[in-house]
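RECORD CONTENTS
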Amino acid sequence: MGGLGRPFLYPNMAKKTPSKKSKSKSKKSLFKRVLWTCAKLIIGLFLFSILMVVVYRFVPVPVTILQLSRCVEQFQDEKPIRLKKDWEPLENISNKLQLAVVCAEDQKFLNHNGFDVEAIEKAIEHNQKGKRMRGASTISQQTAKNVFLWQDRTWVRKGLEVYFTVLIELIWSKERIMEVYLNVIEMGDGIYGAEMASQTYFKKPASQLTNSEAALLATILPSPRKYSAVNPSSYVRGRQSWTLTQMNHWGGKLDYEKPPIHKK
């Protein structure tokens, strides 16, 4: 023991100052923990995305981000909230409408694996000329975007669209892609899906649509809040006539087992 009032400190009890080496190890350890946390998050999101695609292979999609965002827009504009939809299995949706949307939107739908490379190349060439922007999204891409993603033109969203398009092409059948597409697609202000559009515009179920009615609905799909199925413009009527001609070229029926080789 030391003298009175001056306690003796053993050498190993003295306060040590952390060395540079220990600080470096601490930083490396923190970096590894952050990196591992990020890796687990990415893996978790990856597995969750696959799970959602598998689930929606069998289960109706309850609501989409687009539908919710439209409701928010209506609330912000102080308009009545309108979200009208009625899920129907593909067998309850007229084959005429299935054919019409293929003829109007994506004639290689039954043959491609989610992407129409030729259409993409033509769209890029067209857009580089400074003309009005032209899209090249297939029905598969539109379905992936409508079900799993938000609506904008950022590269992040486009990249995720490619990812989800690959997933649904691998996990879903063409019939399932068409079924989901025709049940979630926007077909008017607050109107979603073929059944609700048919009931709203023609007062009949989607299973009873005529060729003309099916072609009209397919024609307004690119801009369903701009083009009207109730008071169609001359442009819409022209596109409707063109779609009907294409439907005749296809034999008036969409055959998922024997798709014709046909180009626009």
Notes: The mean pLDDT is 87. The radius of gyration is 28 Å.
